[in-house]
Amino acid sequence: MNAGKQKIDLRDVARLAGVSLGSASRAMNGAGASAATQEKVNQAAAALGYRPNHAARVLRSRLSRTVGCLLPDISNPLYAQVFRALEDEFLRRDYLLLLANGANDVERETKALGTFTQRGMDGVILAPGNERNAALVEALRVLPMPAVVFDREVSGAHDAVLIDHAGGVRRVVERLLGLGHRDIALVLWQGDTRPVRRRVQGFRTAFQAAGLPVPDLLVQARSVTASVNAEVTELLGRPDRPTALIVQGTHMLNSALRAIAARGLQVPRDISVVAIGDTPFAAEHDPAVSVLDIDQAETARCLVDLLLTRIADNGLPQRKARVGLRYVERDSVAAPASA
Question: What is the CATH number that goes with domain 165-294?
């Protein structure tokens, strides 16, 4: 370092880290440096007390380093988890993530996309609740910044991260069939979204592949946060009541468990239960509830990588990443009493 130099700059960081100036810049900007380079640059920056000048960087790059995130319902704990994982990943890359709650309302969703444009954000990650609505599709088409679609089937050449709901639900049904269950109910909400369609597909495919009739045990609530107490109570009152439930989300799970208890049934002695999505409620319930879950951190990395590489090079071909689901069996699943 030159004698008498007062201000630390990126050249000093690169020199101390033993990397090129370009590599140091990519590491500081979260723009695709290797893990080893990232670590060297971070250590050098910390040792020198270097802090990048955000305002100057914006002027040079014309990037705001802000990203919009549109989710369908933040009262759903699973989407809250998704946002937290995304926020953590973007912060590691020196980006600020701003949340808009679409509330499954197309007017709110299209307005949010317009606001992201007005604010000059660098990109958008979105999981609209109205993926087939013409106004939403058009609002997404005219966005001036890159967008990555999360687990939705929206018309247009957009990058996307898709969850394998069909494969996940099929594996759960196959596990229950293997234990001897035949009357298995699937409890979802009635939204016309990719996750709902794919879960129903996986449910039906598992029975068809086993050469068994698909049971008429599909419950679809009016919203993802609605109670299914009445619907599950009706199912449990049937002579051929289900011996296993696959239930979406925390709110539906809670009401389904209340309905089971009100009928004097015990989990898993009288009925097995699997939740779609893991939450503290499922893990801490007695008995602990088996779950079908995604790796939130992996999903966030996929979304962030797709968006930031698209921001860096908008000429890339359309890309789709797929994320699998993991089944975690706890204490809520057992063979049916009649097996």
Answer: 3.40.50.2300
Beta bridge partners of 184: 244
CA distance readout (Å), 188 to 196, 224, 268, 279: 7, 7, 20, 17
Helices assigned H by DSSP within 246-319: 250-262, 280-284, 296-312
C-alpha span between 290 and 139 (Å, rounded): 39
Round to whole Å and give the CA distance between 152 and 172: 22
Binned at pLDDT 50, 70 and 90, residue 76 comes out as: confident
What is the CB neighbour count within 10 angstroms for residue 291?
23
Instruction: Give the C-alpha separation, 46 to 82, whole Å.
Output: 30
CATH architecture for segment(s) 64-163+295-322: 3-Layer(aba) Sandwich (3.40)
Helix (H, G, I), strand (E, B) or coil at 71: strand
* Distance between CA atoms of residues 288 and 272, nearest Å: 11
Task: Report the alpha-carbon angle 175-181-186, nearest 5.
Answer: 80
- The answer to whether residue 222 scores a pLDDT higher than 90 is no
pLDDT tens profile 125-142: 999 999 999 999 999 999
Q: Which of 135, 196, 139, 170 is nearest to 274 (CA)?
A: 170
Reported pTM: 0.80
Outline which parts of the chain fall under CATH 3.40.50.2300: 64-163+295-322, 165-294
Place of tokens 């592949």: 209
Of 190, 176, 128, 179, the closest CA to residue 155 belongs to 128
The whole-number pLDDT of residue 50 equals 82
Nearest CA to 189 among 157, 151, 219? Answer: 219
Contact 148, 307 (CB under 8 A): yes
Q: What percent of the chain has pLDDT over 70?
A: 94
Q: Are 167 and 154 spatial neighbours (Cβ–Cβ below 8 Å)?
A: no
Average pLDDT over residues 246-250: 92
Does residue 250 register a pLDDT over 90? no
- Give φ, ψ of 325 to 5 degrees: -105, 150
